[in-house]
Write a structure and sequence with these properties.
Chain lengths: 416, 416
């Protein structure tokens, strides 16, 4: 059976597909898989209990239950949640937001599919524009989202050595030339895969650059402020009317409800609402209704600060300790883990590609993610791309420790 | 701000957007709107109670709760639900299905976005292929789904007069020529908007025609068998390995969870899974986990037959009676309501377009849907397109009755 050009493009074996297949297989597997791949959040007991309580309350509230399950929302997404979130962000950060600054999407990924293809690609005047990632490594899921070929362009970072086997990527502003072919800038903050949190000065710089060139700055805050707040350093959230800020309910513990959030000026929200109506008819309301009370009360920020962030920070410290202990004697560097729930390893002496290392570890029931996937839009051959691994520390702690030990053994065997 | 060609295409003011905006505004409105538009299902008390019970049970089951909210599903959708549904369909109809014949999508609409653009549009060899709707009127939501222009083609129906002001559309097989430019055939059964249920002989004919031309037959069963079974006449469900059958949880009462279901041969399911992974990362699991027990036990078929179908059948009879009483003396015909939850009115003497009639009724707080939207792919100017209305009878019964009375008054005033 022959598929269309579009069909072939989106149905092909992508990095995202490999990731999700491995994740799904491992989650369903009877074997004792060490899951350091994927982006599944942890099941934090306090959060699970809170969600169970909310569901129990909703099951006894016929009106809210109808809103959660039984009524199509309007195209931009469930209105009360959008109003509550606008109020929360206004009171917390002083941003001048209203419900018409907020659209919900069927998960962040779908939101990015819509956003990237709205802003970039082919234009009616025959021109082509691209999304620029000012700093790679960057999220692998962006890679395959473009309707047209060649929709992304990216820059290498500058690398700061921090001592203690830590390093940090920075935006290389000197090489950040923006011309007419750029439709928007996009960064994740905290960064998936590296755990990097761009500094406030870098955000300021990117914001000014974007504004000067009349293009929006997209900031993917799936792990960031104000929730789920998986950020281990002081930093300010960044929004102005030239910023498209995306948030998510996934890393609060709700990846299976598929609720992405986009905060932008009304013109962009209206376009996304139109795309929702055509492509999805409506966006689901489960996450919105489930979380609205916590947004109204501001408790969503409290639980993020008091439960979610400390949980991941303590998991991060344990994982980092495992790396230092299991990789002792190897030549390795870890990106300073400033947020999200990944360790990003750089193995400069790796004699095979990180994709091959991924396969070797998978054969030992250790699932990690090879670094290759995390350079969307970066065409040039840069050895660094094959020298990195992303390790999630969100799943079972003992399995993470054993997985890292297995990695140490493989590296030892490879003489890396 | 300038949007891409794709962006403009999907963000434009489409019929679907108008529908969803009106529906959302009416649902949120304080005014006493008579809602005969939109496709929102009814809130059937027994079903609401059942869903509340399921949620309560899940809130006390930590493991299932994690699967429902906290874990990304594999790309084809939550595996246990797909296994359970395959088993149910195998035992009920004898279809040789397995989990790899089933994909979940983020709602049926997203499923059709993926399916249509997978099968039709531009091909690598430079050719263009289209989806053929063998019978229009057909679902308005198909209209705007094509990535490329001109992706749909359609045929007029033949019209059978049944007496008692009823009529029925039939596939006009004599004019159903299929050439190389056709990628697939697509019908909704029961039909949204008309409530038509294609006869078993028509399905057989379409199935054979599709197979003879080496193209799949897509059957949209959002309202059909085995659930939610909003079908008021005896008919056989239709599936073979050349059929792509789509089902939905929406009309069971779960439109806000956004769970579509596609049943097809593994090659197509695998392609849809790939598209899910790229476009959505994963499909939501809420509907799948919420409904799995009812699918396992077969109760989902029982409640469809004993609760959902009788509920809508009795609503249909009341609405039909209202039409005959309020439109007495006017020249009108009603498509025989055989399924779904709409009355499709044909007003041959209407002196204005049905779009204008829609506006007049909206000004009286009566929301209906004008027929114009329901001829996707039918380019030719056919007066019938402007002479029809779709009335939903799923919402408040008294409001439906008052809405139909208001329609009668408008038609009287128009001398139609």
């Amino acid at each position: 059976m022959e598929f269309s050009t579009f069909g072939k493009r989106y149905a092909r074996r992508t990095g995202a597909r490999e990731l999700m297949d491995d994740l799904g297989a491992a989650m369903a597997s009877e074997a004792d898989v060490m899951m350091l791949g994927g982006g599944n959040p942890a099941h934090i007991p306090e959060i699970q209990a809170l969600l169970a309580d909310r569901l129990r309350a909703l099951s006894n509230d016929a009106r809210e239950l109808r809103r959660m399950l039984g009524d199509y929302a309007s195209p931009a997404g469930e209105l009360q949640f959008r109003q509550s979130l606008a109020t929360l962000l206004r009171s917390t950060y002083g941003w001048p937001l209203d419900a018409d600054n907020i659209a919900l999407t069927s998960g962040s990924q779908s939101g990015f599919f819509q956003l990237f293809n709205l802003l970039a690609g082919q234009f009616d005047d025959g021109s082509t524009r691209r999304i620029l990632f000012p700093l790679t490594p960057e999220y692998a899921g962006y890679n395959d989202l473009g309707i047209s070929n060649d929709m992304f362009v990216a820059r290498q970072p500058s690398i700061e050595q921090l001592g203690g086997r830590l390093f940090k990527y920075h935006v290389d502003f000197d090489n950040l030339v923006i011309d007419n072919s750029i439709a928007a800038l996009c960064v994740s903050r905290p960064c998936n895969p590296t755990g990097n949190v761009l500094t406030d000065a870098e955000m300021q710089g990117l914001g000014e650059l974007a504004r000067a060139h009349g293009v929006p700055l997209i900031v993917d805050s799936a792990y960031g402020l104000p929730f789920p707040q998986i950020v281990f350093r002081d930093c300010e959230p960044y929004w102005d009317d030239n910023v498209i800020l995306t948030m998510s309910l996934s890393k609060l513990g709700l990846p299976a409800v598929r609720n992405g959030i986009v905060i932008a000026r009304p013109e962009i929200i209206d376009a996304l609402a139109g795309m929702n109506a055509v492509i999805s008819l409506a966006v689901g309301s489960v996450g919105a209704v489930l979380m609205r009370e916590l947004v109204d009360s501001g408790d969503v920020i409290d639980i993020s600060r008091k439960v979610i962030r400390p949980y991941y920070e303590s998991r991060m410290r344990a994982a980092l300790e495992s790396v230092h202990s299991s990789l002792k004697g190897r030549n390795y560097f870890v990106h300073r883990p400033e947020g999200a729930f990944f360790l990003w390893l750089w193995l400069p002496d790796l004699p095979i590609s990180s994709a091959e290392l991924y396969q070797r570890l998978k054969a030992r029931d250790v699932i990690v993610l090879p670094g290759e996937h995390f350079f969307p839009g970066l065409g040039e051959d840069w050895p660094h791309k094959r020298q990195c691994l992303r390790l999630s520390y969100a799943q079972d702690a003992a399995a993470v420790e054993r997985g890292i030990a297995a990695l140490g053994e493989e590296l030892h065997a490879l003489g890396a």
